[in-house]
């Protein structure tokens, strides 16, 4: 598999926030979010190789039940992802997969953490990736398949209050249950997050959504391997 890093930390986002977890971060992504907080997996992807067996052994050394497979976009390495999940499941791990929800595949997972990309993720107008990103960033059928097949959370990265209209439209069109929707502020520093959290909480209260902080950013800032 192509990967960028593997580390032991706590989950900083979503339903399992605060849970000790081993993160396995794949490299390469089919999207190019302008605010991507892991550009070393997308804009300038690292090209390190690791076998599935080596991945399992590296994860096992931490003695940690929860494993988060993230990216980049894990599902674009479909066969390798399926093999990794199978081996981790047989060892009794709880598996979360974080995905942009543009590619579906059946894998052994306990939680699918979808993060469909809103218009605020679009690259600049003069960027060569814009048309592809805009075309691929929302795949309603993929989101529906994940919702039908797995326990899911649907995290939207919110930059301004104007993003709410797009979220509501997607919720209605795709049929996303409100209780699965989580709103998370866009930002890579504690200061950026703090500027948005108060009004974002109010949007959650008004719409029956959940608020997700980014605890790892609050603790460590914009730092790798945490």
Report on this model:
The chain is α/β, with parallel strands linked by helices and 226 residues long. It has a domain at 2-156: TIM Barrel (Alpha-Beta Barrel), CATH 3.20.20. It is built from seven helices and nine strands, in the order E-E-E-H-E-H-E-E-H-H-E-H-E-H-E-H. A nine-stranded mixed sheet has the order 3-1-2-4-5-6-7-8-9. Helix 1 packs parallel to helix 2. The longest helix has 18 residues, at 190-207. The protein is globular.
List the helices and strands and how they pair.
Elements: E1 2-10, E2 20-26, E3 48-49, H1 52-60, E4 66-70, H2 78-90, E5 94-99, E6 111-114, H3 130-136, H4 140-149, E7 152-158, H5 163-174, E8 181-185, H6 190-207, E9 210-211, H7 215-220
Parallel strand pairs: 2-4, 4-5, 5-6, 6-7, 7-8, 8-9
Antiparallel strand pairs: 1-2, 1-3
Helix pairs in contact: 1-2
- In CATH, the architecture of the domain at 2-156 is Alpha-Beta Barrel
CATH superfamily of the domain at 2-156: Aldolase class I
Instruction: Report, as a whole number of angstroms, the end-to-end distance.
Output: 21 Å
Question: Structural class of the secondary elements?
Answer: alpha/beta
Cα-based radius of gyration, to the nearest Å? 17 Å
CATH topology of the domain at 2-156: TIM Barrel
- Taking pLDDT < 50 over at least 5 consecutive residues as the criterion, the unreliable ranges are none
Mean pLDDT: 97
CATH class of the domain at 2-156: Alpha Beta
Q: What is the number of helical segments per DSSP (H or I, 4+ residues)?
A: 7
Helix proportion: 25-40%
Overall geometry: globular
The ordered H/E elements are EEEHEHEEHHEHEHEH
- State the total count of DSSP E strands: 9
Major sheet: 9 strands, mixed
Order of neighbouring strands in the sheet with most strands? 3-1-2-4-5-6-7-8-9
